[in-house]
Every structure is written in C-alpha cells, then in structure tokens.
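Thought: the user wants the 3D structure for the chain below. I'll pass the sequence to the structure tool as-is, report back what it returns, then summarize two notable features.
Action: structure_tool
Action Input:
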Amino acid sequence: MDVFKSGFVSIIGRTNVGKSTLLNNLIKEDVSITANKPQTTRMAIRAIANRKNSQIIFIDTPGIHKPKTKLSETMIETAFSSLKDVDVILFMVEATSPQIGKGDTYILEKLKEINKKVILIINKIDLVKKEDLLSIIDEYRDKYDFSSVIPVDSTKSKYSDIVLDEIEKLLKPGPKYFEDDEYTDQTSRQIVEEKIREKALRNLDEEVPHGIYIEVIKFKERLTKNKEEIIDIEATIYCKRDSHKGIIIGKNGMMLKKIGQSARYDLEKIFGTKINLKLWVKVDKKWDENTAILKKFKYTK
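Observation:
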C-alpha cells in the first residue's frame, strides 16, 4: 500500500525568473498572478497540488530585489520568513545568466543558514545552448549541495510532473491539510484584488503599476430578477501620483474599462458565475507606508 505524503514547499528566486508561471503549471490553476514585469508577487501565495499519493502546499514568494521602500522591505522579509517553516525549497534561477550574480549569491547564503532540502530549478532553458546549461549546473553545484537540479521551461506544463515527483520523494508521510477540490487558501477578496492588479500590470506602463494597491470594498453574492447568480464587486485602485491616476483611467476612461473588462472575464471563469465589477481610482501618496496595509503583505503561518 502506498504511503500518503504531505508537506510545504516554498518557491524563492529573484524578481521575474518565472516563479508564478511555474506555480500555476504545477497547480494547473491560475492561482498566482503573472506579468512580464518585476515584483509581480507581493505576498506569500499558498497553492495546493493534490496528487494520488501526496498533497503539496506551495508558497509563492515575492522576488528578491534591492529594497527601496518599506513595502520592498516587507516583501523580502516575507520571502525569507516563509523558508523557515517549509519541508522543501525550490530555488529558481535563469539559465540565461552566464554566471551567478549578486542576487542569487545572496539567496544562496540565506539557504546555507536555513539548512533545508533545496531543489534547484533552472528556468528558460529554451534560450541557451546545452553546453552553457551544463556549465551553469556545475557552477551552482559547486556552491550548494542541492537535493536535485531540474532544468525547465516554466511556460510548458510538461515539466510539472518531473518537479512534483522530485518534491514528493523528499516529503515525509503526512495528512491532508486541505480538501481535494481546494487549490488555494486565498480569500475571494484576495483573489479579486490580485486579478485586478495583474491586469493593471499587463496594461499599464512600467512605472505606474508598482505604485498601485487594490482594495475590494464590496463583495456580495445575489440572485438577479431572473434567479441567476451574480457577484457584485466594487474595488478601489490606489495610486501614488495624480499623473498616474490619469494614466490608469485613460482617455475617456478607456484604460480603466480595459482593466475592468479583462479582470471580470478571468474572475467569471474562476468563480463560475457572472460578475458585476466596478472600479474607482484614488490617489494616496503614502499607501505603501501604511502599517495596516503593509501587514497584509507579511508572511503568516
């Protein structure tokens, strides 16, 4: 009889190395927002992979970067705090980096202090030659005793079972922490806030989206006159500058409409029902210094 295993796995790496894309493929759900811009993930997102003989709870962490604000400091603190309570760590790097840079060296030093089982995930292997990949693997193996090294292209699902199998080997027998149909512990409001922010990241210029914060102020399920289920959602997009407010709204409100429509489309698939989404934009120049807001981004067990 097969022994059922379970455990917690943290994914860590520099910004924009593909952590969230990998996680979504491992879970087979759109649980962590993705965008081709740095610092997409701000908080520790938990996601659950339910397999025949195991349940693996992932923690997707903010990318490691040089902090410039209190929010940045909180994000990095969140990333490293999550490593202390997990059974396995996935350390993700890019195959396109010809040598180990300062950011990855910093993470490696932290991993040595924690002393956990670590799997090295080398992403973007489709962009390098085989001999260059082998050279990178050797360089990392010289720096740390990894449990295994897995080269991947995180955009392709064919690598998912390889990664999950390696994790499962390292886990101990354990219980199911979540039901089989659960794939995240995020609340409905958190899912909405992250989805709106993802669409802002994808549609706005580089400078603007990292200065925004989304707050759902209404989430109410109801029946229409025709007895159809619908969810009324109202959310505020906070930004730090008056000029950014104009960019987010766009000419004749077209940008805000575009963000709202694309967010609503995804949310209707996630919740399986019609969504009535209304968005507002407000300026708060110091939202990223607000203690109550920063608390939301801190890692909790």
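Final Answer: Structure generated. The two ends are 32 Å apart (CA to CA). The chain has two domains: 5-170, 188-296.
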